[in-house]
């Protein structure tokens, strides 16, 4: 019997060129990973539409692609669209270049980095299956200012930290529909989680406004895509997508729903989903950021 809720740690949305497995943006040459398309929420199980879920990269397992020194020195930019074969145990069995911008060095660097990744395998009817996946690495010379780099790091932290709370609430709302002790325990587990984590969430929400403002005020042309990705609508969409996936996981559990909720309750009470435990580096980043200034009072 497989335990669900793996996406509490694996959920790492690809935002405006976020490098998979990286905890910070480089101010120099960067290799950027972009999903080939948006990840839909897990579908509900039905006879006509069996439960299935695509493979997901496990955060912190991918190597940061190394920008080839010769290409970097020559100012060569480009991309490589990769096809990745993932085995039922999450291993990368094969990586091939499906589409290239024409530089063999960039292609080789992308392939080598992807070989280091581990995946949560795709599933069908609850069982792991082999799958084909696509991901594009884009290599570019990043001339961002330190302020822009800091804002991007903060934005990733905001999405991750706020997303956990939304997913806790999404699962709790489904488990609370059950009868008896399981439902009561789910509510109590969520209450304890919020008591331990709400100060961090509050600080994260406060910081979000100033971070989004910094993106809106950017006037350089290459920041246009980042402005769109850093909009409130885009951020809320990413966060809600994670919550919907968790909720669908419970809904599709069928006869195992009560057992899955018991597992969730136990892990939540035990602190497995606490923000400092899941993302210590992001919590430190949020806490180190200057406190947003209070609006001036009208005289």
Automatic annotation (TrEMBL):
Keywords: Cell inner membrane, Cell membrane, Membrane, Protein transport, Signal, Transmembrane, Transmembrane helix, Transport. One of its GO terms (biological process) is protein transport. One of its GO terms (cellular component) is plasma membrane protein complex. It comes from the Bacteria. PANTHER family: PROTEIN TONB (PTHR33446:SF2), PROTEIN TONB-RELATED (PTHR33446). This is TonB C-terminal domain-containing protein. One of its GO terms (molecular function) is energy transducer activity. PROSITE patterns: TONB_CTD. Belongs to the TonB family. It is a single-pass membrane protein.
């Amino acid at each position: 019997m497989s335990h669900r809720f793996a996406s509490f740690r694996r959920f790492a949305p690809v935002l405006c060129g976020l490098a998979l497995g990286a905890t910070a943006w480089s101010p120099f040459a960067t290799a950027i990973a972009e999903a080939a398309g948006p990840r839909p929420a897990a579908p509900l199980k039905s006879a006509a539409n069996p439960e299935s879920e695509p493979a997901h990269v496990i955060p912190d397992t991918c190597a940061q692609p190394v920008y080839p020194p010769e290409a970097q020195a020559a100012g060569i930019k480009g991309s490589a669209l990769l096809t990745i074969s993932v085995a039922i145990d999450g291993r990368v069995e094969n990586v091939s270049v499906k589409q290239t911008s024409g530089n063999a060095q960039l292609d080789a660097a992308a392939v080598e980095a992807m070989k280091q990744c581990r995946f949560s395998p795709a599933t069908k009817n609850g069982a792991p299956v082999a799958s084909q996946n696509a991901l594009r690495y884009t290599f570019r010379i990043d001339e961002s200012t330190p302020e822009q780099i800091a804002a991007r790091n903060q934005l990733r932290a905001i999405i991750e930290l706020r997303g956990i709370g939304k997913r806790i609430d999404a699962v709790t709302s489904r488990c609370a529909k059950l009868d008896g002790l399981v439902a009561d325990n789910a509510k109590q587990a969520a209450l304890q989680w919020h008591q331990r984590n709400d100060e961090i969430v509050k600080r994260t929400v406060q910081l979000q406004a100033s971070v989004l403002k910094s993106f809106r005020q950017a006037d350089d042309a290459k920041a246009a895509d980042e402005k769109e990705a850093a909009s409130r609508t885009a951020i809320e969409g990413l966060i809600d997508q994670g919550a919907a996936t968790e909720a669908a996981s419970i809904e599709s559990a069928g006869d195992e729903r009560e057992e899955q909720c018991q597992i969730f309750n136990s892990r939540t009470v035990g602190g497995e989903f606490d923000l400092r435990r899941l993302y210590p580096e992001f919590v430190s980043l949020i806490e180190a950021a200057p406190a947003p200034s209070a609006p001036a009072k009208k005289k």
